[in-house]
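Running this now, will post back.
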Amino acid sequence: MSLSRNLVAFALLVLAVLSRFLPHLPNFTPVLAISIFGGVYFSNRLVAIVLPLGIMLLSDLFIGFHELMPVIYGLFIVYTIVGMKIKDSLGLGSLAIAGLAGAVSFFVITNFFVWVTSGMYSLDAQGFAQCYIAALPFFKYSLLGDFTYISVLFGSYYLLERKGFVSAPQAA
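Update: finished.
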């Protein structure tokens, strides 16, 4: 029995979304992996982009709204577009680069905005350094979460495809 690509991709994403609501380490979340995965496997670009934004909005309804939402949501749109761009050259290398670039860019960009907008740090070189140093533990968990979820999502999909449970993509 062969299931449709979209159905299998959606089921894997539902599992990843549910894991967002389980107890986890700070920043150890599936959203970056979901963004890349959706960009690769959803043929409908709008669905691929809206999915991580919907996950974040739903989470933020429970966790709380904050000033960095536009920055964070914008980054997840970028990661979805990255997934769309690596679709044709998908492999361990492209996934590793996308995951690492995503984690690093998230760390650099969001912490820049924390430094500039939060009022927690002085707006000088010392405050800048303090902000990034304080964020290092979160970066470690973010990196670990991104690579864990990228491995689980893409690995599971690959295995299901190889075992014939999901139909392989047709050449365009």
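The radius of gyration is 17 Å. More later if anyone needs it.
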